[in-house]
Fold:
Amino acid sequence: MVMNFSRIRSRSIFAALLALGGLLLAFPQRVTAGFADGMTLCLTSLLPALFPFFVVCNLAVSMVWVPRVLHPLSRFVGFSSADAPALLLLSWLGGYAVCAQTVARFRQSGRMGPRDSMLALVLGCCSGPGFVIGCIGGSLLGSVQTGVLLYLLQLAANFLAAALLLPWLPAPSPKTTSAIAVPDSRSDLGLSAAISGAVDSCLCVCGCVIFFRILYHLVLPLLPRIGWLRALASGCLEISAGCADFAALGGSWAVTGLCLCLSGLSLSVFAQIHTLLQGSVPLWPLALSRLLHLFWLQGLFRLCAHFLPGVQQAYSSLSGQVIPMTRIQPDAAAVCFCFLCAVLYKVRKNFYNKI
Structure:
């Protein structure tokens, strides 16, 4: 029975890959449009927000004093690892990609056990403040206060979802854990190694975003011309574009859709997290927690939105306030320039090492 299921699964995946390859060859214009759309998202939104945080987090995880700062939070939540508070702080500032990268490093080096790794992934995976407050609140909704409220409520929903998942997580491991699989050889990172790791992580994130934007442009002609349905498809594949599409709808759809995107994270985000984790932590606790997160975030936001000044006016003018997801040009240009320089340096270093 298991053999038959495995065979059917393999054949189904192979058939889906053949179909996708055929679509890529049959519709090159849509592939080009999706690639350009994904590159725009990466250069104007993701890279300026993620690349500096990747570098800072790579440097911060090796500092001895960081885990001591939030030690009371570790005891309150139930972590057995002293590194958990620092991981949560970095994750809440850097977002889901920083969380996945840091959890993988702690897990591979033996600084965090299986249960703590799963719990840290559930509590730490979120959209960063730059995206939620700046892009969603300031640009898409025209209300920074709404962005701050969304950012804080998604963290509160993380805790509520984790509380319901705690009984199904494995038992706490001893405080002295052993490294799994491959030990982390970069326990003490210098600046050059931190930049190199940040480049690798950013390339992984941007690759996933571009792929899923291409996939969206391929399936777009098959979707009915219904605004909320197309926005839902966009949000299921890629969170940034989904938030922009839902915000453009205005009204109640904007609120519901934005909460849905922040809770579901999208297939692109899950692919990024899976790649960054490198198989060190299973994804089922995170996937289950995001389903619970959806109900918590919707309820909390609708409850708290009544106490937010000016919320109704912001909602009523959404369609006129929606602007493209861009950042200040000098800001984005400076970060992208540093990122490209780091990429060229890494390629040159690898090339000469091989010679």
Observations:
- The longest helix spans residues 28-60.
- The CA atoms of residues 186 and 193 lie 8 Å apart.
